[in-house]
Task: structure prediction
Amino acid sequence: MKSKKEMIRIIKTAEDAFLLDATGKKNGRGAYICPSRTCLEQAVKSKGLERSFKQPIPKEVYEALEKEMEALEAR
Result:
């Protein structure tokens, strides 16, 4: 287990959009993962995000989250 400050928050907005929230301050229902692509891949494989948000998540959302994660890793 890591503290929230070491994790990246994935949020679902009121408009049903999924975003990475590196600041942890955006409004919306959130789930936390560690800041690496492998954690995101593991969350996809285990359907952890689907359980957290209690709904199926489209493949396009995972692709967008992966691109955002790559941008964060490049910083």
